[in-house]
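REQUEST ID: PR-0412
SUBMITTED BY: lab tech R.K.
PRIORITY: routine
TASK: structure prediction, single protein chain
INPUT:
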Amino acid sequence: MSSEVSAVYANALFSLASEAGDAVLQQTRSDLRECALLFSLNPDLTRLLSLPTVSVEERAGIAKKIFGDEGLTCRLLRLLIDHGRVRFLGEIADDFDALMLDYQNTVEVRVTTAVPLLPEQGERLTAALTEKLQKSVRITERIDRSILGGVIVQYGDTRIDNSVKYRLDTLKARLS
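STATUS: complete
OUTPUT:
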């Protein structure tokens, strides 16, 4: 869930990175993802870099030893430490990813099926969604046997549920 705080930082970081070119955008995205992953796997690190009993300089020194001081992501981390907002790093990374997808004219689509899609089914679905959305499509497939069959497609705020479970639930509600 994105917050106003994370959106502001992500937009500023994206603006700086895009001014420096595509290579810096890609590197910043990668660095930001790695940093956010490290923080999510080590919640104590987030707490340590947020402790008000440890001076800002000491916290910044700890971050510098772990992450170095090169690149936009390190500058962002220092800024987050200075303003007591390290806890927003994961959201900032998510917001930055969303900005990158938009910049690349790409949409992330989550596809849920009861069984794995065959390669030709995935290709047809990708082609149909690309034509419908007028954007490149990046599909993430999820298997959920409880839907019994069919497919659920989600992108942005849109959800298309064409699963057998949904149809049965709808029929059951009509008959009740």
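NOTES: The mean pLDDT is 93.
REVIEWED BY: pending
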